[in-house]
Amino acid sequence: MRNRKRTGWHRVINGLNISAFVVVLFVGLPLYWLIASSFKTASNLGDSPPQYFPNPISVQNYHDAFVTYDFGIYFRNSLIISIVATALVLTVGTMAGYALGRLPMRGKFSLMVTLLIISVFPAIAVVAPLYLLLRDLGWLNSYQGLILVYTAFNLPFAIWILRNYMLGIPKEMEETSRIDGAGPIRTVWTIILPMALPGVFTAGIFCFTACWTEFLFALTFNSANNYRTIPVGIAEFGTVFTVPYGTIFAASVVAVVPIGILVFIFRKFVISGLTSGAVKG
Amino acid sequence: MATVDLQQVNKVYENGFHAVKDLTLDVAEGEFMVLVGPSGCGKTTALRMVAGLEDITSGTLRIGGKVVNDETPKERDIAMVFQNYALYPHMTVAENIGFALKLRKTPKADITAKVKDTAEILGLTEWLDRKPGQLSGGQRQRVAMGRAIVREPSVFLMDEPLSNLDAKLRVQMRAEVQRIQRRINVATFYVTHDQVEAMTMGDRVAVMRAGVLQQVAHPQRLYDHPDNLFVAAFIGSPAMNLYEASMTEDAGAVKIGSQELPLPVLCREDHPGLARYANKKIAVGLRPEHLPAATGTGTGPPLTGNVDLIEALGSELVVHFTIDARRVRAEGATSDDEDATAHHGEGVARVDPATKVKVGEKITFAVNTVGMQFFDLETEQAIWD
Fold first, then answer.
1. Residue A182 forms contact with B (CB below 8 Å)
2. Whole-prediction pTM
């Protein structure tokens, strides 16, 4: 086996390796540039030729982001809104996904199509009516306003992922559990949910990321400084006269961290979640 | 422990498909009942109705004498082993086996003890802390069995539990399942499409076709006295050779193709009904082992065919031959593949390995007429009285 000639297939595989490397470079370089720049001093930022590695390494930008600007507040707001919205989406989405994926129901198909339509609906088209709605509710500049909107907009996609995942679980699992003597709620909770966890994590990460990076609704509904989320907060760093690039880079690096941690922890689940949903769906 | 009794049970699906028709069947305490038939014959549906996973459209189902038509699977006190095992992947073997007990609020110490006992019976003791994903196919199968027997159910249901195993393991588990069933001594329904499994495992075997029960009997009875063409063709491997034949005027012989086979008195006494078929066409069934090669001392009437193929199995030779008679096929008894390759007048015989046969030459069998079967071509029913 080891002495096999490097024939066509090996060349293809090597080609794939090289292209994978190129893709990683393509995605990774901007990220590296962001991180490197965040540690540069303001005067070194515009150097020509550019500094490939910051010298001296400065944490002034990070200090500025949290002290001079209110990045801490934005970070907290984003965290609260994203976590609560994700939790809501997953709770409702899991139940809906189970019902749509596994229970005999009329009008399943039209319901799924409706959900799909909602999930591709352009946000810009609904931002004005939603603004009026939230204004009347008195929920502008609040957590619950954005949470509600984020939940509504992320739910369809989550339901799709979870439904496809639930579909992939053999029906015998439920039947066995029924014969073992478990009721429907018990079955879903102790058998189906643990088996659907990869799907739940996948949906959770997508949902969290979407909430975390959302700009338009956050800008429109939560304009007060105390309720700004990270994307809006960072955008507002710049003034008419100066754009504090270093601080923006630093804030952006901090903003990327939670997503990175999330994906790193659940990466196995995300991969299996996406594929199994795809194959069985 | 309980009996199971199905009376005129029907299953009609919403789309109008009549999956099980008037099934009447009873299983005694501790009896091993095998439901066998080609795929789509309704055997699994029947099993699922007993389990309570499928509603019964009409008819009565009694377990232990009590009508349970409307009871949940839990209330019926049944245990079931699924074809794909359906083990809980996130639980260890011990948790899988103990899950039903946990749901019944059995004290923890009891669960541990029972799980341990069950694991011992099944030889799973050292795997108790593993997850199903870390087990081999045979071990998973055992866990599925363990999950069912730990509860000491009153009825044991198995839906093709061995079909996911490789051939060697299947033979081994076949004996294992029987051993366990004898030990727990509980009425058992076992669904399979494999007639060898049915024959080797069942106390009685129920053969189904297209939702209709064909015959239920002890395996040997099924083999020796099939009620109709379908059962005759389905049970036995290699399958029975079925030819169109015509009775002679005096009903004393059958003409298979151009060859006439005189029927001894004994045979005619066994099948007095044959007298009615004088000058008529019937189907004649010859099991492969009832076609020994004529060695000169052979006692049966001769039947000669052309040898097409010889399979030497060591203990015997399986001779594929052709005669000039039309084969009779029972619909659904053979798979489509077999149908496509079965040729006109083809037959199979099992002969002594010392027999001198060569492909392309003629072979003469001394037909064992005692084992011959006769069927009405119209009704497909066996001709006895």
1. yes
2. 0.80
